[in-house]
């Protein structure tokens, strides 16, 4: 077997979503539109939650952080993909690949932590309403977000350092539209046992345990809601939590599915297409999901645009 080991490489090749060059203009327009909608929608969520004083609550504080994370999350992958589609150049430098991998892991895990925190926030608000202000105080909210950043930074740094120790073969084609960590370590000629162990442990601890926490929070919410006698009270609870549940379902359903099945299937291109759902589509949908049925955010948006029009 001629592996052609080399201790250092200068670049990788991102094969993208399709080899058909006639589809590239369509893909470029599609993902450019998605990126602009994602960036604008999440930026508006940040603006309205920070400018409207009545939205200065824990729920909207976490939502603003989630929107910021989603902007960064999509910005780690889509701009490079757009450049590659436009220039017909599939290369990404070794340093660029590691950087993209680092920030992708960081903001993906930050999303996971924030979704878990938001579930806990709804649990406290619904199951312990009299103690909500005391429990979800500004200090605790800040510490929860800070802890999420610290854990995300440490794990993404660890994974990047583990990739740095690898030597790669001459086959440097990544069947993906970004430097996905599992696909990168598959190209290594040196031992990848540590990388694989860390990847699945981190996925288990930060993904599955977080999902268990979300499930527990909502089991308590459902149990508490069933004890509410009025139909309007039940509807209010479910309408408040429905948006978050939908986002969690989209993110976890596609994200965990792709990562847990990646070791069992060889259809890497299919995994790349499936990963579009949680890396691109879910961040785009989040602002719509959280705002369409939220009177507070819709009212704040009208006020924001009213101020903009008045100034103009």
Q: Major sheet: size, sense and barrel closure?
A: 3 strands, mixed
- Termini gap: 68 Å
Number of strands: 3
Label the overall shape.
globular
Task: Give the uncertain stretches in residue-range form.
Answer: 1-5, 308-312
Mean pLDDT: 85
- Alpha plus pi helix count: 11
Give me the secondary-structure category: mainly alpha
As a percent range, the share of strand residues is under 5%
Strand and helix order = EHHHEHHHEHHHHH
Rg: 21 Å
User: How much helix is in the residues?
Assistant: over 70%
Walk across the major sheet and give the strand order: 2-1-3
Q: In words, what does this structure look like?
A:
This protein is mainly alpha-helical. 74% of the residues lie in helices and 3% in strands. The chain is built from 11 helices and 3 strands. It has helices at residues 24-51, 58-75, 78-87, 94-127, 132-135, 138-164, 181-185, 193-226, 231-261, 268-291, 295-311, and strands at residues 11-14, 91-93, 173-174. A 3-stranded mixed sheet has the order 2-1-3. The longest helix has 34 residues, at 94-127. 34% of the residues are buried.
Secondary structure blueprint with pairings:
Blueprint: E1 11-14, H1 24-51, H2 58-75, H3 78-87, E2 91-93, H4 94-127, H5 132-135, H6 138-164, E3 173-174, H7 181-185, H8 193-226, H9 231-261, H10 268-291, H11 295-311
Parallel strand pairs: 1-3
Antiparallel strand pairs: 1-2
């Amino acid at each position: 077997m001629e592996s052609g080991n080399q201790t250092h490489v200068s670049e990788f090749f991102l094969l993208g979503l399709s080899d058909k060059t006639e589809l590239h203009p369509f893909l470029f327009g599609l993902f450019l539109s998605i990126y602009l909608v994602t960036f604008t929608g999440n930026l508006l969520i940040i603006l309205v939650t920070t400018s409207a004083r009545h939205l200065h609550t824990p729920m909207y504080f976490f939502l603003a952080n989630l929107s910021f994370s989603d902007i960064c999350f999509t910005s780690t992958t889509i701009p490079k993909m757009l450049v590659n589609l436009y220039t017909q150049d599939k290369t990404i430098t070794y340093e660029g690949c590691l950087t993209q991998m680092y920030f992708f892991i960081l903001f993906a895990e930050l999303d996971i932590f924030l979704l878990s925190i938001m579930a806990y926030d709804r649990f406290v608000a619904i199951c312990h309403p009299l103690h909500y202000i005391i429990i979800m105080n500004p200090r605790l909210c800040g510490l929860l977000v800070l802890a999420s950043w610290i854990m995300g930074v440490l794990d993404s740094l660890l994974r990047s350092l583990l990739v740095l120790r690898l030597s790669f073969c001459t086959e440097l084609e990544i069947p993906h539209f970004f430097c996905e960590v599992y696909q990168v370590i598959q190209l290594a000629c040196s031992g990848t046992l540590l990388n694989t162990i860390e990847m699945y442990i981190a996925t288990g601890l930060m993904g599955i345990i977080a999902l268990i926490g979300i499930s527990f929070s909502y089991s308590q919410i459902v149990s508490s809601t069933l004890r509410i006698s009025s139909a309007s009270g039940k509807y209010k609870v479910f309408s408040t939590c429905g948006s978050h549940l939908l986002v969690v379902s989209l993110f976890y359903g596609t994200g965990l599915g792709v990562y847990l099945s990646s070791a069992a299937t060889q259809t890497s291109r299919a995994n790349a297409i499936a990963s579009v759902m949680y890396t691109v589509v879910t961040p785009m949908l989040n602002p719509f999901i959280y705002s369409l049925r939220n009177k507070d955010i819709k009212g704040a948006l009208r006020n924001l645009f009213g101020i903009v029009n008045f100034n103009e």
